[in-house]
What we know:
By secondary structure, the protein is an alpha+beta fold.
Amino acid sequence: xxxxxxxxxxxxxxxxxxxxxxxxxxxxxxxxxxxxxxxxxxxxxxxxxxxxxxxxxxxxxxxxxxxxxxxxxxxxxxxxxxxxxxxxxxxxxxxxxxxxxxxxxxxxxxxxxxxxxxxxxxxxxxxxxxxxxxx
Length: 135
């Protein structure tokens, strides 16, 4: 169970890095809960897809140095990684985008149900990101 959870999360991030949103969203439960860093919780694949479309417009990101851990029963997982990014289009309430690059440590916690991601909670230091893009 542990190995299956780790493989699922690795596929999730491989699809993200490849920009393969069809595969990425296929790994989500229909009622996936998405806890946005320092934000609200959104429910459902449609909301998650809309969030990812917005992110894709504003940011170009690759996740590197990925380490995935999982509970023995495979119901919980965690990932630590570094975000290498470029700020493309100004996001509401954030500093103006002028193509700034950033390098940001980040992590995520997952709940897994039926071989799908049922919850993802993302965490990074927003103040660090703002400082890096000149806010």
